[in-house]
Specification:
Blueprint: E1 4-8, H1 13-24, E2 28-33, H2 36-44, E3 52-55, H3 61-75, E4 80-83, H4 98-123, E5 130-134, H5 137-141, H6 147-167, E6 173-179, H7 192-196, H8 207-219, E7 227-230
Parallel strand pairs: 1-2, 1-4, 2-3, 4-5, 5-6, 6-7
The structure holds NADPH dihydro-nicotinamide-adenine-dinucleotide phosphate.
The site of NADPH dihydro-nicotinamide-adenine-dinucleotide phosphate has 30 residues, from helix 1 and helix 4.
Pathway: Lipid metabolism; fatty acid biosynthesis
Protein name: 3-ketoacyl-[acyl-carrier-protein] reductase beta subunit
GO molecular function: oxidoreductase activity, acting on the CH-OH group of donors, NAD or NADP as acceptor; quinone binding
Length: about 240
Amino acid sequence: MSRLAVVCGGSRGIGRAVSRLLAERGCRLVVVSRNEDATQATVASLHGAEHVAFSCDVSKEQEVQKTFNTIQKTCGNISYLVNAAGINRDALLLRSKPEDMVSQLHTNLLGTMLTCRAALRSMLHTKGAAIVNIGSVVGLKGNAGQCVYSASKAGLEGFTRSLAKEVASRQIRVNLLVPGFIHTDMTTGLEEQDKLRSIPLGRFGEPEEVAHAVLFLLESPYITGQVLVVDGGLQLAM
Ligand code: NDP
């Protein structure tokens, strides 16, 4: 039986590229995001036929638990979990609205904790199980106008390293992938030319380039608790 991979935030951007690559490599995919139509459309575009879509808000504990219970019942045990669901509500802290602060923390940080917790029991039953969480270079370096988003992503580093220690004895690996600027909906509207000067490779990355690094982490049996930066050298210059 092929490996079952769950990609949260798989309907668009980095998560969709990861879903496509894993499907090409023979995994059965469960694609999760809030928008049902977009999630179904991604599943319909995947190589192979055994994939399924679930509409779920990862920031809501009961939805997450219900979704993962159904995944286990209908699809089997999970081998890979990729947490790519994320939002940003960029603003200087003084202008940040409390509801935007909460939604970023709940989606980016709490959401990842909830999906990991919900998936782990099922992952105990598979060999070579692995989780990749998606952070951000601003979680490592900070960025004015992104205090809350940066905090949510910095939190993922401590969470990932701690969880890696907790589950290593069960041979489950947990790593953090940290992208720089990647062409997706999240970066649409940014003044790209202004940013290019700070990227040593001189360009934004593509979702497919991040997906290859996610695949590398998922398939590397002796790597756990690590942070892999995929940013064209951006953090060298920050
Ligand atoms: P996109 O905005 O293109 O896609 C975000 C995905 O997350 C969508 O599938 C979206 O679907 C889903 N999502 C958002 N909120 C929730 C939620 N509450 N529950 C379930 N799914 C949700 O973003 P990217 O692909 O660019 O980003 C992917 C990850 O990479 C994010 O964590 C982001 O913070 C991180 N990142 C991105 C960078 C970039 O330059 N693009 C740089 C650094 C980090 P839906 O709206 O239907 O729920």
